[in-house]
Design a protein that fits this description.
Strand content: 15-25%
Helix content: 40-55%
Mean pLDDT: 93
Largest sheet: 7 strands, mixed
Number of domains: 1
Low-confidence stretches: none
Number of helices: 9
Structural class: alpha/beta
CATH superfamily: Vaccinia Virus protein VP39
Number of strands: 7
CATH class: Alpha Beta
Strand order of the largest sheet: 3-2-1-4-5-7-6
CATH topology: Rossmann fold
CATH architecture: 3-Layer(aba) Sandwich
Order of helices and strands: HHHEHEHEEHEHHHEE
Distance between the termini: 29 Å
């Protein structure tokens, strides 16, 4: 049985349209909310994700669902020649572009508007493709993952960082309460969009995590697929090779 489509605003629009509107709406407050609600742990998760690419030394990297570019910035640790940060939300990209210009790294990180399910690149373009907290927002998960595989060079690596559901006491219970009550509470008062932050736990709950998601990657053609939970299962790292 297929899982129901989870959307932020539950209107007649498609998930893609609603997710785009949601990120446009919260773009100005997104960075603050991200670090505030994760208690800063998201920095450690990104650092661990970047470390998974260290051995392969990718020179050209595509960061999908880049948002305001935090993961793209973290990827600079790998000393690549070029990073393309792609997102469907123009609002998020505008914030990201200013960030790159202020840090004087816009000559390395190019912020580009685009759809993860229809990437504007030729096959075998990138040494590595990354996504942080973005795949659960895809309208068509398989299509997005296949596009990522298509634009990755043979032997190139995929790294996905995504929220998951902790399984053990007491993290399981604490995370459930935090995501159900605390996140929407601050989403309403700080980001002025309660539905956007209620969507976060709903989308995490609906996402095929862990071995189920790893099986999807394998079925689509990714090789050497591995999973690793972080922070007691609050998030999971997935890797695969083309």
């Amino acid at each position: 049985m297929s899982k129901p489509v989870v959307k932020p605003y539950k209107t007649g629009k498609s998930k893609k349209e609603e997710v785009t509107s949601m990120f446009d709406n919260i773009s100005e407050r997104y960075d603050f909310m991200n670090h505030f609600l994760s208690l800063g742990i998201d920095h450690l998760w990104r650092k661990k994700a970047v470390a998974l690419l260290k051995a392969s030394k990718p020179q050209v990297i595509l960061d999908i669902a880049t948002g305001t570019g935090d993961f793209a910035i973290a990827l600079l640790k790998l000393n690549p020649k070029r990073i393309v940060g792609m997102d469907i939300s123009k609002g998020m990209l505008e914030v990201g572009k200013k960030k790159m210009q202020q840090r004087k790294i816009d000559h390395i990180i190019e912020m580009q508007h685009g759809d993860s399910e229809n990437l504007p690149f030729e096959a075998n373009t990138f040494d590595a493709v990354t996504v942080a907290f973005g795949v659960r927002n895809f309208e068509n998960l398989d299509k997005g993952l296949l596009e990522m595989l298509r634009v990755t060079k043979t032997g190139g690596k995929l790294v996905i960082l995504e929220f998951s559901k902790p399984k053990k006491f007491p993290i399981k219970q604490a995370f459930k309460l935090y995501s159900r009550y605390v996140i929407p509470f601050f989403g309403k008062r700080i980001a002025k969009d309660e539905k956007a932050y209620a969507y976060l736990p709903e989308s995490v709950n609906a996402f095929p995590e862990g071995n189920e998601f790893a099986d999807i990657l394998i079925q689509l053609g990714y090789q050497s697929v591995k999973t690793e939970t972080v922070s007691g299962g609050i998030a999971t790292l997935y890797t695969g090779i083309k």
